[in-house]
Amino acid sequence: MLNHLKQYDIILGSQSPRRKELLSGLDLPFVQKVMPDIVEEYPAELPLTEVPLYLAQTKAEAYRAKGLMQENTLLITADTVVIVEDMILGKPRDKEDAHRMLRTLSGQTHQVVTGVCISLLSGKKAFSCSSMVTFAQLSDEEIDYYLHRYRPYDKAGSYGIQEWIGYIAIQRVEGSFYNVMGLPVHLLYNELKAFGKSN
Which residues bear the site annotation Important for substrate specificity (predicted)? Predict the structure, then answer.
């Protein structure tokens, strides 16, 4: 499948092992290249649901600016945020911040939005995906166990849906499960089917 993309060297511009795992599931040859020190800032007036799309495109521009893209490069960048109570929960600063985030999510329904940018030197296509996730009530003991055992400090909202906390706490997911993991592969596949043919 996606044989028309064989002309490209596909790069996943992300350090996330979850995104690497999910993109691998599409049976595409690619390499994962991490460019550190990309400043993940966004305009204060930007609607919260548009932040991950903005950051995914910012990451793509950073790769382009560093000269890491060639004529046959197809770059995939992404960013995921958790939105609850009109605020964004990104990656936690430390254990205390992670505990605060999980306490905030406990017993609540929150939104997970992932922005994705597919880039060539000649152009790009950006899109986003939204899912709603409902958490059961979590005790401090459960939160502390999860943080000690799984150390989810590289994850938006301080949790991974595919881990222990997902098994015991997530009551309902409306939308894409894989989007909550960090990459809406169903949408990415459909975009890739059309992308190389029209760019």
Answer: 18, 80, 162
Return the closest-CA partner of residue 78 out of 92, 63, 59, 65.
59
The answer on pLDDT for 195 being more than 80 is no
State the catalytic residue, choosing from 79, 86, 97, 154. Answer: 79
Reply yes or no on whether 27 is catalytic: no
pLDDT digits (tens, 9 = 90+) for 22-57: 999 999 999 999 876 787 789 999 999 999 999 999
Helices 185-198 & 17-24, crossing angle to 10 degrees?
70
User: What integer is the mean pLDDT of 147-170?
Assistant: 96
For residue 131, list its beta bridge partners: 112
Q: What are the sequence ranges of the domains in the chain?
A: 3-198
The token pair at 179 is 């989007």
Alpha-carbon separation of residue 124 from 10, 69, 70, 121 (angstroms):
14, 13, 14, 8
- What confidence score (pLDDT) does residue 136 get? 98
State the burial class of residue 164 (Cβ atoms within 10 Å of its Cβ: 0-12, 13-18, 19+): middle
Distance (Å, whole) CA 10 – CA 74: 5
Rg of the chain (C-alpha set): 17
Element (H, E) at 13: none
Contact 192, 8 (CB under 8 A): no
